[in-house]
Amino acid sequence: MTTRRLQRLVLTGSVTGAVIVALDGTVLTVAQPALQRDLHASFGQVQWTSTGYLIAVASLLVFAGRLGDRYGHQQLFALGILGFGATSAAIGLAPGVGWVIALRVAQGIFGALLQPATLGMLRATYPPDRLGMPLALRTSAIGLAAAAGPVLGGALVAHWGWRAVFFLNVVPACLMGGLALVVRRAALAPAPAPAPAPIPPSASASSFAPGEASAGGAGPTAAGPTTTGGARPAGGLDLPGACLLALALVSLVHTLVALPETGWTVVTALGGVAAAFACGAFIRHERRTASPLVPLSVVGSTTIASALAVLLSASAALFGTLFVSTYFLQDVLALDPLESGLRVLPLAVLMVLSAPASAVLQRRYGPRRTTVTAMTLLTLGILALSQLDRNSTAPAIGAGFLLLGAGFGTVMVTATAVIVRHVPTAHAGVAGGLQQTAMNIGPTLGVATATVLVTLTAPATTGDHSPGAPHWTAEAFLSAMGPTLLTLAAVAATGAMAAVKLPRSTTADGDSRQPPAVGGVRDRDLSEVSEATCHDVR
């Protein structure tokens, strides 16, 4: 298998895996009311179909990335996508809501295996200077899936019921899982031995020392072609560190999800304390262990840390804004879900269009200027939406969402490219896990922040001071919307300041220079090696 063909297959698998995960979340939101009616479930039980999945994914992403670094991203991808498809089929056949919740947790485990592998495979297959466009295509596909998900989910639920949205993933998951296994089998096939070099007529066998002939023949023939497979991380999996990180993330996610509904209670306070304690214990453990879950070359890099901060702040600001905007469109302007979706459509369109453009922009202007500009657009979009009122027109609303889409789509591609490009290949899975963790924690943090801010501001008008009040009058919400969105704009501006630490150009290594690769092969040689490169993405 040629390197170019391998790259196309890996890109196809990476994009498809990312789209399956993105579609799953968007279509489920549409299907939840029908699921609740059909299974006679409570509102809390239905919420746990999403919360259980989120907790499982967020707690395991980094450890799953470590597994990919050690045992091969392609293996983890195949296991993750096949398991994701199998649990999707099982959920579609589930007899009760308890089964749905349990299977969604299992699906989250497989999703955690799948998501870092989609980035790890790209990093191991493409040379760093050619990662921009594959990541842009992946982001465009995610944006398209996010835009099509509600429409597709609504059509499936209307014609075949809520179970159909889970059967949607089965066929593409099986196809991509089978493709990954086929590619891996081709990668494991032994490469043909190189033909021996011709001996000049003037040379004779007696001109070689006895030991030199055998040593020369044992060189390339016995050792085989040099591959990047030697760049596996040394040491163990750091199970104690994985458990501490999982405990910290489970406590954090559970607290953030519960906070908007219950406010600060004993349970949420204990969850916050547990998250802080586990995080401190994790940091202490990582500093002392010989084989940390998150290597110092990753977490100690200013470049990677800044890119993660950008993604966290951007996703928190965007999804918090979308939460507030949904209430504004439906409760204040009294639009139905379809009309609300059409108002938000410019965001999805600009996400799809800005992703490939960002690959060109960062080559010309560098990651720093591109990301700072994109975060500025995101901030301006939130500020524009904060000025809306009952008399706002569709073009005014659309302009705000256009800025959001242009900014967020560019940020996703550029910041992700910085993370994937600057991390050593041996730790690409861990870096992908950190990127996906930021993209899962950020939206949860943004929605929780927006809900708490609206709840604290709205009761002055409604007279309802309960911390978890789920509804507000239109006037109360409108009075709270401005301050809430201004706070989220400040969060986005913080991300713009973090973006100043990103490299000036795509060729700048910053503080994340890669060590020499094992076996004499460096990352930049990935485009020059033969099909033996497949060994690195097993």
Descriptive overview:
There is one protein chain. This protein is mainly alpha-helical and 538 residues long. It folds into three domains: 191 residues, Growth Hormone, Chain: A (Up-down Bundle), CATH 1.20.1250; 55 residues; 218 residues, MFS general substrate transporter like domains (Growth Hormone, Chain: A), CATH 1.20.1250. It is built from 18 helices and no strands. α2 runs antiparallel to α10. The protein is globular. The C terminus is likely disordered.
Please tag this protein with its features:
antibiotic resistance, transmembrane helix, 75% helix, MFS_trans_sf, transmembrane, mainly alpha, Growth Hormone, Chain: A, MFS_dom, 3 domains, 538 residues, globular
Rg from C-alpha positions?
Answer: 25 Å
| Principal-axis shape | globular
Mean pLDDT: 79
Unreliable spans are 201-230, 460-470, 509-538
The gist of it:
The protein is mainly alpha-helical and 538 residues long. Helix content is 75%, strand content 0%. It has helices at 3-39, 43-71, 73-92, 97-125, 132-160, 163-167, 170-188, 210-218, 220-223, 239-262, 266-288, 296-299, 302-332, 337-386, 394-422, 428-457, 459-462, 474-499.
Can you lay out the helices and strands and say which pair or pack?
Layout: H1 3-39, H2 43-71, H3 73-92, H4 97-125, H5 132-160, H6 163-167, H7 170-188, H8 210-218, H9 220-223, H10 239-262, H11 266-288, H12 296-299, H13 302-332, H14 337-386, H15 394-422, H16 428-457, H17 459-462, H18 474-499
Region (Disordered): 200-231, 504-538
Domain Major facilitator superfamily (MFS) profile: 10-507
Membrane topology: Multi-pass membrane protein
